[in-house]
Amino acid sequence: MHLVTGGSGFIGAALVRELVAHGHSVRVLDDHSRGRPQRLADLEGKIQLVDGDVRDLDAVMAATEGCQFVWHLAYVNGTRFFYEKPDVVLEVGVKGALNTVEAALECGVERYVLASTSETYNQPTHVPTTEAERLMIPDITNPRFSYGGGKIASELLALHLGGHRGLETVIFRPHNIYGPDMGFEHVIPEIVQRIVDLSDGLTKTAIDLPIQGDGSETRAFCYIDDGARGAYLAGMEGGPGEIYHLGVEEEVSIRDLILGLGEALGVTLNLVPGELRAGGTNRRCPAIGKLRGLGYTPQVSLKDGLAKSARWYADHFLAQRKAG
């Protein structure tokens, strides 16, 4: 039995499907505060869905009983929440990691797999970035780093509480996983919503679009299907105590990403630079050689992934406008 915390979340639900597709029995623990059980509706009868909060040790213990694998994905993500709810981000992050590690040790779990994040690097010293990159929090007073700080604490707990006491651990660090139904507190859905609004429901074919900064910042965007497949490989085939980057090695500027979303929606965009929020990162792109060594190969192009994502979100926002 595999326990997936946060299994009704965006990456969690995709991982659950990957596990089921490979014939594994799956139990999901989620309070659905960020996830949605509807993401798993087509798996009804094929998985066990348990309502519970990873901050509740009793709930985590009960869900872990009888499991051989624990995949800990439950967390609060979305940049908006890092600034607005840093206390909740840290509480879920640290308590969730501590509780799941303790439950795994108590219940005799064979392997514990932690989903971390590229945010642990803040501004990496080299790009493409390897797993050996130092982790850092550059400004302890900035609430944005509640997310990266909580993940650093989670990695320490997995490796040096669980791992030191005999629990086999693996960590994967996702880099900008995206796709339809990824939530609404991320750059792609936020940009699509603004395109829909400023184009009057996609009826205007050219608009001015204000953005944060000048769009020169870069990221490497990995489509959710590739992300789920890579997470599965890292967790199932990765070496004990190892860390794996999950993503693609195609670095793209935020400017080109936004223009690509406009192209997918048939709207020409004139980007208007604005103020860049403090705490962001100029460049981020992972080296994925370690995960490639396990058989991982990204298959979905950025153009195709953006088209699917832009259309899904545009249809959602257009339906909202129609409903009033």
What string gives the helices and strands in order? EHEEHEHHEHEEHEEEHEEHEHH
Report strand %.
15-25%
Radius of gyration: 19 Å
- Please identify, by name, the CATH architecture of the largest domain: 3-Layer(aba) Sandwich
Spatial order of the strands in the main sheet?
A: 3-2-1-4-5-6-11
Number of DSSP strands?
A: 13
CATH topology description of the largest domain: Rossmann fold
Mean pLDDT: 95
- Outline the low-pLDDT stretches: none
Shape: globular
CATH superfamily of the largest domain: NAD(P)-binding Rossmann-like Domain
Annotate the secondary structure layout.
Blueprint lengths: L1 E4 L4 H12 L4 E5 L17 E4 L5 H8 L4 E4 L6 H6 L1 H21 L4 E5 L29 H18 L5 E7 L2 E2 L8 H12 L7 E5 L7 E2 L2 E2 H14 L4 E5 L5 E2 H11 L3 E5 L16 H4 L9 H22 L1
Parallel strand pairs: 1-2, 1-4, 2-3, 4-5, 5-6, 6-11, 7-10, 8-13
Antiparallel strand pairs: 9-12
Helix pairs in contact: 1-7, 2-4, 4-5, 6-8, 6-10, 8-10
Walk me through the structure.
The protein has 324 residues and is α/β, with parallel strands linked by helices. The chain folds into two domains: 2-178 and 220-246, NAD(P)-binding Rossmann-like Domain (Rossmann fold, 3-Layer(aba) Sandwich), CATH 3.40.50.720; 187-219 and 252-282 and 300-323, Alpha-Beta Complex (UDP-galactose 4-epimerase, domain 1). It is built from ten helices and 13 strands. It has helices spanning 10-21, 57-64, 79-84, 86-106, 145-162, 187-198, 224-237, 254-264, 289-292, 302-323; strands at residues 2-5, 26-30, 48-51, 69-72, 111-115, 168-174, 177-178, 206-210, 218-219, 222-223, 242-246, 252-253, 268-272. The strands form four sheets. It has a seven-stranded parallel sheet with strand order 3-2-1-4-5-6-11, with helices on both faces. It is globular. The model has no long low-confidence stretch (mean pLDDT 95).
